[in-house]
Design brief:
Length: 458
């Protein structure tokens, strides 16, 4: 086989066509139409645009290098060698477009009526959910979008994207069916927990602890399962610490499935099977925000077990469940007391659990809101979720009122954040910035109080 001028001409034409298509790709800032309150934060948009522009520049440079090679030494190359090099260039081109499409799906959704603004408000909530006192990490911008399906998911920042390169932002997907009441809080903060856990290295630091526990022999199979599930358990822990019983009730709604699924143990699934996961959530809530032997977490666990009786289950499954129940208190204590290097000597519960999330304090705050509704708009989003979830659990607010109030507040977070961002850009903003979002809330836990109420599900 010899050099073929026709092959050289064809591949040159194809490469020039790809360059034309690449030049036609415009930044999102020039092509997306949305109201300002629906936009993602400037920090997130800037990170995405810089990443994509850099990727297109690299691919464009590879194409020009290929054309230069074709015009010189490549003219004498065999057609197969020319085609091999062109294929590599074309794969890079397709990768650049596929990565643009990944972010395009997220940003384009901001043009949907009302949905775009709600997502912007959830961006604010997600940023606050990732905030920890003590500056233990440099967190990335967070953006949210909706999708069909039952469960949420996250594409964590700094993880590899399809085709290569590190994701510049954290992208959280929330199921459309979760955009009601405490369901959105539970799913959103759980996914934020995955990002927080990655930034702190929680899964990597917990695994050796759990594997040493397996070596002790007693209930080894249970500890093997806790080890397998620890990534999802840590995210649940984060959610419970941030939004209290709203997290557990949201989880209960999510995993209220046909009985066969609730008791199904799938070996490769990183999630605890639903029956044990809800009980673990209750045990975690009790550990972080104790309510006594007759408190709300014990009552919710009893209610869950009445909804899904264990009668008629296979003996081997019942044995597995018994081992998990017996080791659950120790497992929760290990997790709460875990001191990864990233926390500089502090325990996970010591950093995440906050006194103002204790049920009596939440109820007291809700009653102060009713007396002075203006207080609610200066409350951090996760604390707002926690208060409304506790009020709902205690029968102080209806599902209809809760959902309506959350819609108003999420919209208000989006609008206020947009206006404060504009003020900051103009040099007159007063709110501190976090993850590209202004901190539009005020921390005010005065009169934190001791009023209590009896949960409605007792």
């Amino acid at each position: 086989m010899t050099a073929n001028p026709a092959a050289t001409w064809l591949l040159e034409q194809e490469t020039r066509a790809l360059l034309t298509r690449l030049a036609g790709v415009r930044p999102f800032a020039l092509q997306e139409t949305l109201v300002p309150a629906a936009a993602i934060s400037p920090a997130a948009l800037s990170a995405i645009e810089r990443y994509l522009i850099r990727g297109r520049q690299v691919v464009g440079g590879q194409m020009h290098e290929f054309l230069a090679w074709l015009h010189h030494e490549g003219q004498a190359a065999l057609p197969e060698e020319q085609q091999r090099r062109f294929t590599a260039v074309r794969l890079g081109f397709n990768t650049a477009l596929s990565q643009m499409d990944l972010f395009s799906e997220v940003i384009t959704q901001r043009s949907e009526h009302e949905i775009g603004v709600w997502l912007s408000g959830l961006d604010v909530a997600a940023a606050e959910a990732l905030l920890l006192p003590g500056h233990f990490y440099d967190a990335p911008p967070v953006i949210t979008h909706l999708h069909r399906g039952l469960g949420g998911s996250i594409r964590r920042a700094r993880t590899r994207l399809p085709g290569g390169g590190d994701n510049p932002v954290s992208i959280i997907r929330i199921p459309r069916e979760r955009m009601i009441g405490y369901g959105v809080a539970s799913s959103l903060v759980h996914e934020v927990g995955h990002q927080g856990a990655a930034l702190l290295g929680l899964v990597e630091s917990m695994r050796p602890v759990l594997r040493r526990r397996q070596l002790r022999g007693e209930h080894r199979n249970a500890w093997v399962l806790w080890d397998r599930w620890v990534s999802e358990v840590v995210a649940d822990f984060w959610s419970i610490a941030k939004v209290g019983i709203a997290s557990t009730l949201g989880l209960l709604g999510l995993v209220s499935l046909p009985r066969s699924f609730v008791f199904q143990v799938v070996p490769e699934d990183p999630h605890p099977f639903p029956w044990i996961r809800v009980l673990l959530s209750c045990a975690t809530g009790e550990r972080l925000y104790a309510g006594g032997p007759h408190g709300q977490w014990h009552q919710l666990a009893a209610l869950w077990q009445s909804l899904y009786s264990t009668s008629g289950l296979h003996p081997r499954l019942r044995e597995t469940m018994a081992g998990l129940r017996q080791t659950m208190p120790e497992f929760v204590s290990l997790l709460a007391g875990h001191r990864p290097a990233a926390l500089r000597g502090r325990s996970l519960a010591g950093v995440l659990a906050q006194p103002n999330r204790a049920p009596p304090r939440l109820i007291s705050r809700y009653r102060r809101w009713r007396a002075d509704p203006s207080r609610i708009r200066t409350t951090p989003p996760t604390l707002t979720f926690a208060v409304l979830g506790q009020a709902r659990a205690s029968g102080l607010i209806t599902p209809e009122r809760e959902s309506a109030l959350l819609r108003e507040l999420i919209t208000d977070w989006a609008l206020t954040s947009t206006l404060e961002t504009a003020r900051a850009c103009a040099g007159v903003g007063l709110a501190p910035m976090y993850l590209g979002q202004p901190a539009i809330w005020q921390l005010d836990d005065r009169n934190g109080a001791s009023e209590t109420t009896t949960p409605r599900y007792a």
